[in-house]
Amino acid sequence: MSSFSFLSGCGGGTESVPSGTASGTVKVNGKALAECHINFVSSTTGTGVYADLQADGSYELPNAVPAGDYRVYFTSAGLGDAPPSESGNPELKDVLSEVPQKFQSEQSTDLQAVIKEGANSFDFDLKP
Predict the structure, then answer these.
(1) What's the CA gap between 89 and 92, in Å, rounded?
(2) Distances (CA, A) of 74 to 22, 80, 85, 116
(3) Which of 8, 47, 53, 74 is 20 to 30 Å from the Cα of 22, by its Cα?
(4) Distance (Å, rounded) from C-alpha 125 to C-alpha 114?
(5) Model pLDDT for residues 57-101, shown as the tens digit of each residue
(6) Which residue has the higher pLDDT, 47 or 15?
(7) Measured between alpha carbons, how far is 6 from 119 in angstroms, rounded to an integer?
(8) Which helix (H) or strand (E) holds 90?
């Protein structure tokens, strides 16, 4: 597990920033969502991380991230941060066709996750 640390301004010591991991499952109206990315973006720092959704809708963030509040949204694999409507590739759009539009952008999502120190589990069942 990775940890993040910063040098403090006094005395040259180090201060460890609490970090945590996240895993869980994603469904749309009870059906597993697969072949896309789940994105976690910090509400305070703007930094983010993503994970691939597996065939059963499960995911696990690849590294520990700083503890805090995160917005959660979904993108097609290969799109990065661009919502599917900005992609010219119709196959990429189809992957998210059942995901409500509001969950496909950092700006419009209302999904939140509070990552705490240690292991965290977040299961989402997306509904319109």
Answers:
(1) 6
(2) 15, 10, 13, 21
(3) 8
(4) 17
(5) 999 999 999 999 999 999 997 644 444 445 455 555 577 888 999
(6) 47
(7) 22
(8) helix 90-95
